[in-house]
């Protein structure tokens, strides 16, 4: 975890305006990483849940991608 936090602190100095964590396991620490980074961090777990719920609650339950 210390290496991830140090890497996150480096992001603003490198000019990053946002970051993504492409690792499921590291998402256990996404809040800590976002705080250390000082930039917006995309939470892929939250994005997945939001997308799944939005598709689940569509007006047409038979409207499926590819059909």
Q: Could you give the order of the helices and strands?
A: HEHEH
Annotation field: number of helices: 3
Q: Strand arrangement, largest sheet?
A: 1-2
The rounded distance between the terminal residues' Cα atoms is 44 Å
Question: Could you characterize the architecture of this molecule?
Answer:
The protein has one domain (2-56). It has a two-stranded parallel sheet. Helix 1 (2-13) packs parallel to helix 2 (30-37). It starts with a helix and ends in an 11-residue tail after the last helix. The protein contains 3 helices and 2 strands. With 67 residues, the chain is mainly α. Keywords: Plasmid. It holds the Pfam family Asp_Glu_race. InterPro entries: Asp/Glu/hydantoin_racemase, Asp/Glu_race.
Q: What's this model, at a glance?
A:
The chain has 67 residues and is mainly alpha-helical.
Q: Which key phrases capture this entry?
A:
Asp/Glu_race; 67 residues; mainly alpha; 2 strands; 9% strand; Asp/Glu/hydantoin_racemase
Give the arrangement of secondary structure elements:
Elements lengths: L1 H12 L4 E3 L9 H8 L2 E3 L1 H13 L11
Parallel strand pairs: 1-2
Helix pairs in contact: 1-2
